[in-house]
Amino acid sequence: MLNQFKDNITHIVLTLFLILILSHFIFFLSQVRNFNSNYTSITNIDSLVVLTGDKFRIAKGMEILSSGIGGKLLLSGVNKNIKLSSIKKEFPKYNNLFNCCVEIDNVSLNTFENSRETFLWLKKNKYKSVLIVSSDYHMPRVKIEFERFIDMKNIYYHPVKMDNDISAIRKIKKLFLEYVKYMRTYISIIV
Question: What pTM did the predictor assign?
């Protein structure tokens, strides 16, 4: 009788735990879906940072820079074996911007390091505002990491929508992996 009671309690606790995780994952998905750019074309922004990783991020950053928003752009998290000239070849219509206004960070290997290197770059160049460009599913964690280092009121975010060409299963895997990273980051801050 006692063993059956313990088994029932264990099942109830596990079920509640799974419901809690699933509920929080749904909350995370709503954050991703509802994360909007918090700047306008008239917002005075003097720097841009693109977190590399998914395709379309660099293209979106270059598009924003070419529209006159931000004076300099940092590509953060570029593989140490890739040179700026290689990236420049991928975006020939922005050659003039690459020549004057784009720098790369080959140090960062993860979002925490992206935020640290961005902080150092902003401080070194005395920038007063920054627009962070990354994938939409990445933004909740980006916001946590960047606000850990960057204590400025003029920090803005621009989410790039997830690639629609990937399968639903790959999207769910990508979102769940990001959720796990988000939770790890969140817990590391509150503990």
Answer: 0.87
